[in-house]
Amino acid sequence: MKIAGLDEVGRGALAGPLIAAAVSLNPKQQIPNLKDSKKLSQKQRERVAKLIYESGALVMIETISVNLINKRGIGWANKEIFKRLIKKTDADKYIIDGNLKFKNKKIKSVVKADNTRKCVMAAAIVAKVYRDEQMKMLHERYKVYGWDKNKGYGTSTHIKALKTYGISKHHRSLFIRTALTK
To answer: Model-level pTM greater than 0.90?
Structure first.
């Protein structure tokens, strides 16, 4: 049975796209140090992501732009990104981290799957590494926000920069209003 693990990153960020990955691991290859992406350093995640690709795993990545998030909302984006990935990924079963509801019997949402299911751990790692790279590239054009360090999340440095320099086209407008009123 071919199982695809799916996870997203960037849902709570103030800036940048929502990224999700689907990964079907190669059952003939073990991936060392495969665990919850939050328990790995950036360098460890990058090494493990490379091992995932090299293992022959099937990897798909999907992006929802800030523009679409601002127009349709993060709730829509979170469900839509998984729908898009499932359409692109051939599997007998899909395990999604979280508690989203889908009518398709092949899709199962599991809370904390990124901590218990290897295919979801792999998806989380791949998605996180990919999004971090995207945010580093955006940082080159928007250095005042510190996206190379905070990856678009609402750190005190990022919020201070927002108050000083205003928002960019890569910010999530609704999230920014909420962050600036705290």
So the answer is: yes
Write the DSSP symbol of residue 171.
B
Nearest C-alpha neighbor of 69 from the set 180, 174, 178, 176: 174
Best CA proximity match to 86, nearest among 117, 51, 44, 58: 58
> Buried (b) or exposed (e) across 96-106, using 16+ Cβ within 10 A?
bbbeeeeeeee
What phi, psi does 121 have (nearest 5°)?
-55, -45
For residue range 123-180, what is the model confidence (pLDDT) as tens digits? 999 999 999 999 999 999 999 999 999 999 999 999 999 999 999 999 999 888 776 7
Q: Following DSSP, what letter does each residue of 10-73 receive, concatenated?
A: -TT-SBS-EEEEEEE--TT---TT---GGGS-HHHHHHHHHHHHHTT-EEEEEEE-HHHHHHH-
In order of their start, the domains of the chain are 3-134 (3.30.420.10)
CA atoms of 87 and 41, how far apart (whole Å) = 31
